[in-house]
């Protein structure tokens, strides 16, 4: 057994590790607004905006896949310090470079760092938290995601008319927060559970069969008993993230280029709805560890599907976009990334946890990157087709998730915690040796 961590210390680690979600949200939201502000100054076309947005999302996907695996192999702390350095370097490019290749390099670095950080930071939170606080602390990371978007939107309402300077302020905010997070993380210890499991794996490596060696590889995710949860989470998050990524990266574009509104109107509406969403995350943190979890999930799922049906039925006008933003940002509190994070941490063991989370994020972001690449072109030729795709994707995602996770009764991480808390009973050989 390891020395228990005081509750206040747990929340500090949850904050510092959870800043991965803040930075991810800030990067996604900033890029969508900043590229609109840079459109005229740097002569960006719909195609180049699509390339930059897709590069960020694609890089997050690749970073999550690689970073998640490295987190299981090298340790949580090693990876989440390196990722902060990478994000900081990318943010410097985005702030100071004024040519397309520099912007592209900055997007790639920020995306790789943010993606690699997410699964490792979530595993850190899950492994140091007590069972009664685990759901709330992982949910807290989603609150930080909301706050990251809100801060960027608040800034956007101020700098939305400043053109290139406004874009530099948005990217500069990411740089400052990343550096502060890097400093804070120097005080976060390595996951004690990861150290124990890694030492046990190394000690036992010589006696394990080839099949057992697969335990520490991604192949294990496609084998029982993990394959059902892995595939369900990958499909659920991929389909839901199509909508989330579109709202985050192309919200400003939808308002300005499709509905003939302004960046300030978009930022104000999203800021209000995000504030409401952040309040609801507090509710989510309370109910996620109770028997009412799935009831709230169903309510959120209905909101997300209806959100995309409104502009589909009535066309992408300012008022329909308002309704979409409200329903989507409220619904995804209970039926989006937050619940995906908790299900993932619960469903996989320590030496697969970060890898599984990274692979799920990677699959989802690859899908979103593909859609982001063509979104401006789709919107220019027929925006209702985009909302039909997103509505259908949401419906399939939430039905699948409900079918799989409404039947889940026990979780891997709770079983691990129970093993940790069980009293030590020596074997007969150990008893004789001690006697």
Automatic annotation (TrEMBL):
InterPro entries: MFS, MFS_dom, MFS_trans_sf
This protein's record includes keyword Transferase: no
TM segment ranges: 12-37, 49-67, 79-97, 103-122, 143-163, 169-188, 226-243, 263-284, 296-314, 320-339, 359-379, 385-405
Membrane topology: Multi-pass membrane protein
Domain Major facilitator superfamily (MFS) profile: residue ranges: 10-409
Family annotation (Pfam families): MFS_1
Cellular component terms per the entry's GO annotation: plasma membrane
Main location: membrane
One function term, GO molecular function aspect: carboxylic acid transmembrane transporter activity
Keyword Methyltransferase annotated: no
Keywords annotated in UniProt: Membrane, Transmembrane, Transmembrane helix
Compartments where located: Cell membrane
Protein name: MFS transporter
Organism name: Microbacterium betulae
Lineage of producing organism: Bacteria, Bacillati, Actinomycetota, Actinomycetes, Micrococcales
